[in-house]
Design a protein that fits this description.
about 500 residues, alpha+beta, seven-stranded antiparallel β-sheet, five-stranded antiparallel β-sheet, 16 strands
Length: about 500
């Protein structure tokens, strides 16, 4: 019999990556230089003293930032892969302020880069050139919570963890959970259609977000804030902005459905000797744990070794080439315990699982989640990380890692594969001491061609941003891309909203 720790109506806060400590601009090449053969500055105006004066009239002096030292952290992504050269940061608190800023920028043809918590991985939330950064960090008010319909309404700058804590006190949870929850913001989550750890249970943000308020490129405030689960009146426009990465409009408010908090949460960490055994265990987990399964994660041996070696995390079980993390949450402790116990007994007796443990308390839950959620943090210590967020059939996860090992060999220090088994999303990470364009040329488009042959997607949950915009054709048809460009032209004729992102030139 497995030892169980039943969580008394508490949902643990997963390990949070400290974004700020990785965000120094030292030795990070400007995007405009590193990618000079792939991008050219658009025909946008350059800010002047008069522009700054207008923004100070809207926001006041204290929320118009021009100090280069204060701008540094906003000009670079946290994985240190891209760096912009913005000279101005604006920090509105209200939708009206956003509207006035955007309307002025559109009139002057000043390019804008909307920015939330800046936790993205594809260069979508930092400038490419000198775009004005519009931060939503001060738009952090929770507006309402309908405890009968479980619908939360809040401003776009609310941090995901803050919302989770607020709901936890009211017996609810956010349907979205990410490793960067301590920094990421809900408006940016919506704008990138962030996936995360609970998608297998609650679906994507397209299914949980009920309404959005969006500021369009001319300053128009579009109210799509329906808080009804059923609203079949015309085109459902909010879906155009979910995943559009701030290129069609700037999200200022969100209405989202929040599930009831489970009575019990249990966490198992398993070691497996082959990928075939992992697939068998995954299939059995989906079948036998279906209604209580809330997370189903995969890590290869190199991924787990990275956090143990670099971050000195504890090893809960022996060394194996593959690991699984299974979280179950439900309303009946006794029922959930019996189901998980029976499942674990079966997979151990069959030999598919070689070893495993169940978290005995909240501290051990946090430690086990750290083995999964701190991989990205650990790998940054190797130097530069080539990161690829991909959707492919789960049967090919390990195959892809081996293909890249064969293709790149000794050029790479560490090859890691980990991700979400429940929705076919692998995070392929490869490290080396410094960025090398020759390595990039060997990876791209090779990895995208491989994904295309296996009917996958070049972006599973992180979006296209700047770094993947030129590879959209590996996942979308020419007709789809043409239509997207037409929508962009319709919503943003001057192209001021997050230029150089999502769509190829």
């Amino acid at each position: 019999m497995w030892l169980m720790r039943n969580n008394p109506r508490i949902l643990i806060s997963k390990s949070i990556i400290n974004i700020s400590k990785f965000s120094s601009t030292d030795q990070v090449e400007l995007t405009s230089i590193r990618y000079k053969n792939h991008v050219k500055r658009g025909d946008f105006a350059t800010i002047n003293g008069s522009d700054v004066g207008v923004f100070e009239e809207i926001l006041g002096n204290e929320r118009v930032v021009i100090d280069p030292n204060d701008l540094q952290i906003h000009n670079i992504d946290w994985i240190r892969s891209v760096r912009g050269a913005s000279r101005l940061l604006l920090k509105p608190k209200t939708t009206d302020e956003v509207s006035r800023i955007v309307a002025y920028c559109n009139k002057r043809k000043l390019a804008l880069c909307p920015q939330g918590g800046n936790t993205g991985l594809v260069g979508g939330s930092v400038p490419v050139y000198d775009e004005i950064i519009l931060s939503t960090s001060l738009m952090n008010q929770i507006i309402s919570l309908n405890e009968w319909s479980s619908i939360l309404v809040c401003q776009a700058g609310c941090v995901l963890e803050t919302l989770s804590e607020y709901l936890n006190e009211r017996e609810m949870i956010m349907p979205l959970d990410l490793g960067a929850k301590g920094s990421c913001q809900i408006g940016a989550n919506a704008s990138t259609n962030a996936g995360g750890l609970r998608l297998i249970r609650y679906g994507s943000l397209h299914s949980t977000i009920l309404g959005l308020e969006v500021v369009l490129a001319d300053g128009t405030i579009m109210d799509c804030m329906s808080a009804m689960k059923k609203d079949n009146t015309g085109y459902d426009l909010k879906h155009l902005f979910i995943g559009s990465e701030g290129t069609l409009g700037i999200v200022t408010k969100v209405a989202i459905h929040c599930p009831t908090k489970p009575n019990s949460v249990t966490l198992a960490f398993l070691g497996l000797n082959s990928y075939e055994n992992l697939l068998k265990t995954m299939k059995k987990a989906k079948k036998e744990l279906g209604e209580i399964l809330s997370s189903l994660e995969y890590m290869d041996g190199a991924s787990v070794e990275s956090v143990i070696e670099i971050l000195k995390l504890k090893r809960p079980i022996g060394e194996f080439p593959f690991y699984m993390l299974i979280e179950c949450s439900g309303s009946n402790e006794r029922h959930d315990q019996e189901k998980l116990n029976n499942f674990l007994d079966d997979v151990m007796e069959s030999g598919n699982v070689a070893d495993g443990t169940i978290a005995a308390d909240l501290n051990q839950m946090s430690e086990i989640w750290g083995l999964r959620e701190r991989i990205a943090e650990a790998l940054l210590h190797d130097g530069y990380v080539y990161k690829y967020d991909l959707s492919i059939p789960v049967t090919h996860f390990d195959e892809l890692v081996k293909v890249m090992q064969k293709e790149l060999g000794s050029l790479i220090k560490r090859f890691c594969g980990y991700g979400h088994l429940g929705d076919g999303n692998i995070h392929l990470n490869m490290t080396c001491p410094v960025y090398d364009p020759k390595i990039t040329a060997k990876i791209e488009p090779f990895v995208y061609e491989w994904v295309q042959r296996h009917q996958g997607s070049v972006s599973a949950e992180h979006g296209l941003g700047f770094k993947k915009r030129d590879f959209i054709s590996y996942s979308k048809s020419p007709e789809s891309i043409v239509t997207m460009k037409q929508l962009k032209k319709l919503f943003d004729p001057n192209g001021i909203l997050n230029p150089y992102k999502v769509l190829p030139v």
